[in-house]
Amino acid sequence: MCPTNRNRTEWAALAVRRFAEITGSDLYDDAITDLLVDLRHLCNRESLDWEYILHKANLHYREEVLGARDGDS
């Protein structure tokens, strides 16, 4: 079964909620920003290209949104 955008949204929400629990960040006020910053630190430590990863993520997001013509949002 191919994941839907609803599935993807729920997975992201679970990750953000868990991150907020671990770090004490305010849920959704700061947790998403803090998680993105920490992911950027991880990319730096692992010598990964942050800008390329963001570009690739944007391409995937566009494909998933454009592919959701069956009512999945």
Please provide a written account of the structure:
This protein is an all-alpha fold and 73 residues long. The chain has one domain. The chain contains 3 helices and no strands. The chain is flat, with a radius of gyration of 14 Å. The two termini are 17 Å apart.
- What's the overall average pLDDT, rounded? 92
Note the beta-strand portion. Answer: under 5%
Kindly give the count of domains.
1
| Amount of helix | 55-70%
Compose a concise summary of this entry.
The chain is mainly alpha-helical and 73 residues long. The chain is built from 3 helices and no strands. The protein has helices at 5-23, 31-45, 50-66.
Task: List its traits.
single chain; 73 residues; mainly alpha; 70% helix; 0% strand; flat
Write the layout of secondary structure elements.
Blueprint: H1 5-23, H2 31-45, H3 50-66
